[in-house]
């Protein structure tokens, strides 16, 4: 490559070569040498500044409780770092960094320092091995061993003005796989903080969004044909981002682990298949389950089914899907239209998992089980509505799956507008009676919006028991609105649920 000829003006800056000094301005007529960052006592400058600004930064005047870590020097400036300490031990995650420019001026101070007024005393301190045992428990270690060295450090955490002794334990577990940081109280062993240290990968895949009947706006010209591709079905595919993958090249992530005979794997985390490939259903299950959990968390709930749920795909040939309350996993059947090809079915089954997570053993009576089916239909219907963004398929769930057993356009697994009234329309079968419950939930979402209604419904589940009745559920809905919204929707809730024959008052 031809090099450009360099032309220098009379006032060009002199650059250092072979030991020739660098000058700050102009050319050789200006003999003021540049001050290098390395020539500055950055640590001394930083400490003088911190003492001067101690009150503003809420530091001790003598800087006690700050331990010098290091100074990083670059041509642009120096960076002096300190660690907050208590009794000579680090306060986890609390540091202070001072930026000093080459002229010796402090240009920035960023402080995590937290003042405290007392130090908690622990009479019976856990040993390191005891703290590690607690850490394994708190991450849900399944006992399959470690893949790396466990790191254990004693220090402090400051909460509500008190310095609390604790262990920071980093566990490298095989199940759940990855590196996990836990902060464990040094006396009680109580979990104070848990953090997933694994770097998550972002992948991509192709899915139905939410199913081809909804996105197409009609069931005409769409047929299963034993998983065969067709131009009409392929046209309904949408490329989506797959979040939270663990980087292993499998469909394993924060909230979903797909177990499948297809053994889907791609080191580049690109999972783009058409429905004639069994791996397509794996991607569908991962994407929609992950999205549902992220949606729940967006409503402010980080304690509802916040785990990596196993989704068994292409492992069961029946035309049915189910949640196992003993194994805590989901199974999607491949009979008829593969159930995992329909986001409505996926959401419905996830609804059972949600309720079991909130109320273990939920649905132990006919009415409790009916509310479980009704909530699953509600979750599937509003999820489909949100993804499709059109009016087609409203009050109908699992349109694509239903093409194998239901006529009509759209075909429906079940509807949420059958106008059933309790108790005269109750028949003692949970799926049929679930339509008594799904309709008022769906009407609540139509009136308040999906987010507001779902938040109330999820909140209400904690008030219930495994044998709760329809009326218990209706009263819990109204009570949840009292807690969340100070009861501003009370009259609306009365009207909607009373129309279905359900009592909302105590």
TrEMBL record:
Task: Tell me the Pfam families matching this sequence.
Answer: FTP (PF07504), Peptidase_M36 (PF02128)
The segment annotated Disordered runs over: 208-229
- Which keywords fit this entry according to its UniProt record? Hydrolase, Metal-binding, Metalloprotease, Protease, Signal, Zinc
What InterPro entries does the record point to? FTP_domain, Peptidase_M36, Peptidase_M4/M1_CTD_sf, Zinc_Metalloprotease_M4
According to the entry, every stretch annotated as the FTP domain falls at 69-110
Which portions of this protein are annotated as coiled-coil regions? none
On the tree of life, the source organism's domain of life is Bacteria
- Compositional bias (Polar residues) at which positions? 213-224
- Record's PANTHER family? BACILLOLYSIN
Q: What is this protein called?
A: M36 family metallopeptidase
Q: Which organism is it from?
A: Fictibacillus fluitans
């Amino acid at each position: 490559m031809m090099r450009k000829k360099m032309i220098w003006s009379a006032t060009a800056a002199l650059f250092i070569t072979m030991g020739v000094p660098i000058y700050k301005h102009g050319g050789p007529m200006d003999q003021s040498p540049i001050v290098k960052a390395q020539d500055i006592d950055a640590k001394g400058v930083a400490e003088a500044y911190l003492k001067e600004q101690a009150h503003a930064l809420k530091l001790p005047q003598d800087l006690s409780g700050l331990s010098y870590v290091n100074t990083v020097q670059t041509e642009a400036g120096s960076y002096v770092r300190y660690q907050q300490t208590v009794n000579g031990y680090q306060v986890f995650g609390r540091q202070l960094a001072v930026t000093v420019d080459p002229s010796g001026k402090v240009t920035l101070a960023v402080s995590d320092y937290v003042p405290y007024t007392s130090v908690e005393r622990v009479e019976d301190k856990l040993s390191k091995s005891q703290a590690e045992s607690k850490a394994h428990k708190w991450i849900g270690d399944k006992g399959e061993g470690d893949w790396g060295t466990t790191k254990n450090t004693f220090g402090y955490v400051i909460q509500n003005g008190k310095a609390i002794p604790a262990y920071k334990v980093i566990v490298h577990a095989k199940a759940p796989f990855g590196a996990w940081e836990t902060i464990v109280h040094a006396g009680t062993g109580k979990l104070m903080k848990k953090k997933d240290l694994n770097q998550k990968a972002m992948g991509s895949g192709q899915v139905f969004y939410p199913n081809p009947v909804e996105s197409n706006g009609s069931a005409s010209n769409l047929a299963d044909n034993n998983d065969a591709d067709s131009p009409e079905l392929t046209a309904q595919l949408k490329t989506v981002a797959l979040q939270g993958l663990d980087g292993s090249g499998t469909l394993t992530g924060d909230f979903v682990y797909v177990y499948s005979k297809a053994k889907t794997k791609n080191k580049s985390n690109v999972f783009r298949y058409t429905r004639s490939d069994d791996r397509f259903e794996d991607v569908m299950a991962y994407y929609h389950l992950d999205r549902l959990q992220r949606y729940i968390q967006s409503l402010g709930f980080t304690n509802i089914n916040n785990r990596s749920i196993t989704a068994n795909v292409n492992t069961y040939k029946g035309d049915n899907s189910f949640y196992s309350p003993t194994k805590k996993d989901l199974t999607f059947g491949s009979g008829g239209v593969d159930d995992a090809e329909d986001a409505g079915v996926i959401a419905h089954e996830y609804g059972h998992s949600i309720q079991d997570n909130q109320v273990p053993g939920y649905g132990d009576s006919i009415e409790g089980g009916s509310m479980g089916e009704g909530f699953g239909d509600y979750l599937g219907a509003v999820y489909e509505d949100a993804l499709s963004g059109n009016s087609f398929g409203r009050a109908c769930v699992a349109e694509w799956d239903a093409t194998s057993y239901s006529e009509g356009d759209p075909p429906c697994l079940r509807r949420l507008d059958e106008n059933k009234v309790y108790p005269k329309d109750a028949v003692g079968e949970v799926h049929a009676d679930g339509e008594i419950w799904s309709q008022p939930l769906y009407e609540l979402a139509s009136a308040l919006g999906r987010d507001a209604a779902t938040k109330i419904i999820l909140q209400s589940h904690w008030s219930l028991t495994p044998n709760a009745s329809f009326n218990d559920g209706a009263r819990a809905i109204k009570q949840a609105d009292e807690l969340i919204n100070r009861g501003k929707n009370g009259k609306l809730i009365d009207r909607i649920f009373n129309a279905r024959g359900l009592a909302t008052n105590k």
